[in-house]
Amino acid sequence: MQVFKFGGASVKDAAGVKNIASVLQKVGYKNTLIIVSAMGKTTNALETVIKNYFENKAQLQNSLQEVKKYHHVILLDLFENENHAAFKKVATLFDELNNFLATNKSPDYNFVYDQVIGFGELVSTTIISDYLNVINLKNNWIDVRTQIKTDSYYRRANVNWEETQSLISSKFNKTILNITQGFLGSDSNNFTTTLGREGSDYTAAIYGYCLNAESVTIWKDVPGVLNADPRYFENTQLLNKISYREAIELAFYGASVIHPKTLQPLQGKEIPLYVKSFLNPEASGTRIGKNVTLEPMIPCFIVKKNQVLISLSSLDFSYIVEENISHIFNLLHLYKMKVDVIQNSAISFSVCADNLFNNLEKLLHHLKAKFKVTCDKNVSLYTIRHYNENAINQIEDGKTVLLKQLTQETVQVVTK
After folding, report:
1. DSSP state for residue 146 in the 8-state scheme
2. Whole-number mean pLDDT of the chain?
3. How far apart are CA 228 and CA 245, in angstroms?
4. How far is CA 318 from CA 173, 314, 315, 324, 346, in A?
5. 132: pLDDT strictly greater than 80
6. Which of 93, 275, 288, 369 is a good FRET partner for 58, with 20 to 30 A between their CA atoms?
7. Strand pairing class (410-415; 401-406)
């Protein structure tokens, strides 16, 4: 059994959908599960729908219509006429979305987010499944929400592994090509949940683990895992081989090619993960596995933009020790701030974090009750694995360094 995951960039238009078929025909699709994300920038477009639902009802239908039009163009390019069943299936999904927006009574933003955002994946897999059937790549469409069960921590749900394993084991048909959605699950009340942005990679790992897959492959628009993001760094290099441990370190620090949760279940069963290019599917790409030395052994750069650096000091010059640190972390957890770097001294504490849920102002207000607080917004966090002096100079050149932390293998620098 092999698991393939295709991201939004791979299916941004009809040509991308056709290319998935080409990839399958070139590398084989026997005993294969395909996991697909929302098409192109659909997730961003649906986030606009959600924003309008809460803040600008007059623009709600216009923003939703843009999403419908985008997918309708792809349908027209893939199917010969509008009588094909795919058009009706997609229309039904959008009717379901409209009905939710019209009848929902919950004011909980995170709940509404998950109920709306998942339609991107449901629509994309519906279109792709029908297209593959048309060209005689017969497949079985699966609603992932019937197999991956989670708690109700909307927008970053935790998997119920026991129930998920049971459902996948009992309901999965390995004799046919299968296709399902990334990113999604459902809670005990069958409401849609999501696994966090970029969670489709994690979905692939969940299925890989539960199906005892021979391998999991993530198909990207890059040759494999690079030593840096080419959007921000020049002269990037392909990493041919990476150990699970090294890949987990890179993912933890924010490498965008791999979701942080993806590697742990695969490592548990020693299932190799490949990252390959859907533009050149027969190239070797990157292999991530057990007891593999990083090849080549070069500095690896990661940058996270739009972070916040919060600096605290005690009001009465008392030490910031266990009790204070526990209080700080309880607040960070309460306001769902993703912590990336911490640094403390006797009377000060600094934390660089990701304000994913826009709770920064509430957090700062709470912290000011006990600490002197300063906050730098829109800072950048650079992480270098296997650094050398030249690599550090490259990062710091022309920037103001606000915080710097070195360990034996990793340096992290916060800059303004």
Report:
1. G
2. 96
3. 18
4. 62, 6, 8, 10, 8
5. yes
6. 93
7. antiparallel
